[in-house]
Structure formats: C-alpha cells, structure tokens
Design brief:
This protein is mostly helical. It has a single domain (5-87), classed as MazG-like (Helix Hairpins). It contains five helices and no strands. Helix 1 packs across helix 4 (57-77).
C-alpha cells in the first residue's frame, strides 16, 4: 500500500469538485451541498461507532474508510487542504506523553 493513499484520495475528491463527472457520487455530494455532506459524515461516524461496539473489525475498518472519505469531501467543500490536517497531526505527534490534568469537580457546590 502506498503511503500517499490519503493524498491520492484527496486529489480525486478535489478533481471531482473542479471537474464534475456525471454519475459520480462525490459530485452528487458537492451538488447537494454542505448539509448533505455533513449528514453523511454524521451517518458514517455513527456507523463506525456501532461497528466498533459490535466488535467486528472488518466492518469497523469499512466504516472508518467511509468516514475518512466523507470527511475529505467535507474538507474539499470547505477548502481545507489535507496538508493542513496532516501538519496539525504532525504538530500533535510531538505532544505524545504529555498527560492532560484531570479536572476535579466539586459536586457539593
């Protein structure tokens, strides 16, 4: 598997945005707009959670893949470059080992 697969997929999504092709599901999503795209992101997120809860790894992998695809369509719709997300993940990777302080809640007040 190529380590550029996410970039390759994102380029396909961007290509569908700039050069719509009849019958393309990606073009259908762009045509329907942000509300439809966000609905699909929400659906795929829920389906990912359910698959993980059911403990079926193959199903979970499929749902995660669907979610990533729909997130990329959302990103492209909102002109968010994949490189911005990758840079943020890189920045966060340097925080590994930094534990957040747990907040204590006073239930008496």
């Amino acid at each position: 598997m190529s380590d550029t697969i996410l970039h390759d997929l994102y380029q396909v999504v961007l290509g569908r945005k700039s050069d719509p092709q009849e019958g393309s599901y990606t073009c259908y999503l762009f045509d329907k707009g942000l509300d439809k795209i966000l609905k699909k992101v929400g659906e795929e997120c829920s389906e990912t959670i359910i698959a993980a809860k059911n403990g079926k790894q193959e199903e979970t992998v499929g749902e995660i893949s669907d979610l990533i695809y729909h997130l990329m369509v959302m990103m492209a719709h909102q002109n968010i470059p994949l490189d911005a997300v990758m840079a943020e993940l890189e920045r966060r990777s340097h925080k590994i080992g930094n534990l957040k302080q747990m907040k204590t809640v006073d239930h008496e007040t």
